[in-house]
Design goal:
Elements lengths: L5 E10 L3 H12 L5 E4 L5 H7 L8 E6 L35 H19 L6 E3 L7 H14 L8 H9 L7 E3 L9 H9 L4 E7 L6 H6 L4 H10 L2 H10 L1 E3 L6
Parallel strand pairs: 1-2, 1-6, 1-7, 2-3, 3-4, 5-6
């Protein structure tokens, strides 16, 4: 691979959360630019997503570790530092108070094991819902598994990237999270592609077809269909081709 080559991972988060998200992500891969996705294993639709993976052999599938916004796989009474009185995770990592490292490690391992049970394979990489692994305790848990299994981890910030590289964990050179909400439009996406530089860049996205589960369970809803439209827009596909960008997934790192 040339030192000047530009490689791009377009990763769709939240696979397995609802059937509509599954449909949207698979469509964005089959007809568009999504080359990678990350599976949330604690939701009922995760099994359906896993059962469809053989139809999309070129799609990289990682583990989307979820320690926010839902319920754990392990019994709630084993995770007192992570759940509230109803046995639910905090809605956002900013609300973590003092996550116990052993509890975090146990839940992350449980989700890793569930991924292997559902898919029959290792994930191509690890990342986290709401970028929870920007928290050092969560980052340590992901690094433990990544080092043991030889997996890349998402580079969510300069500090996380430095921590990953110092631990010998493969990651991307750049991470783009601004394709979101009001920026999830064709113009901003074309700007992202135009600004790509040599090396490996990951662009995070959240395409979906809307369903009732998504409407009831997420604050980020209508924009997901807009993302799907952009990621399958012929102008976006042409921009990637004109830039000379090679689409890959984390399994290529």
């Amino acid at each position: 691979m040339s030192a000047t080559a530009m490689r791009l991972i377009v990763n769709a988060d939240d696979l397995g959360r609802t059937p509509g998200i599954n449909d949207g992500i698979f469509a964005a891969h089959q007809r568009g630019l999504v080359s990678s996705a990350t599976l949330m294993v604690a939701y009922p639709a995760a099994r359906e997503a896993a059962q469809r993976l053989d139809q999309f052999p070129a799609l990289g599938i990682g583990l989307h570790v979820a320690l926010t916004g839902g319920e754990p796989l392990l019994p709630a009474d084993e995770l007192p530092s992570l759940v509230d009185g109803q046995g639910r995770f905090a809605s956002h990592p900013d609300l973590f108070t003092a996550p116990d490292p052993e509890e975090v490690a146990a839940e992350v391992e449980a989700q890793f094991d569930r991924f292997r049970e559902l898919t029959g394979r290792l994930p191509t990489h690890l990342d986290s819902h709401h970028h929870a692994h920007r928290h050092p305790v969560v980052c340590d848990a992901l690094i433990t598994i990544a080092a043991r299994e030889g997996l890349p981890v998402r580079n969510t910030s300069a500090a996380v990237g430095e921590r990953l590289r110092s631990a010998g964990i493969a990651t991307t050179d750049a991470f783009v999270e601004r394709f979101y909400a009001s920026e999830a439009r064709l113009g901003p996406f074309l700007d992202i592609i135009d600004g790509l530089t040599p090396g490996v860049t990951e662009v995070m996205c959240h395409p979906a077809r809307l369903d009732d589960l998504l409407r009831r369970g997420s604050s980020y809803v209508d924009e997901r269909e807009v993302e799907l439209a952009v990621l399958t827009d012929p102008r976006a596909l042409q921009a990637v081709e004109d830039k000379g960008v090679r689409l890959i997934h984390f399994g290529s790192l």
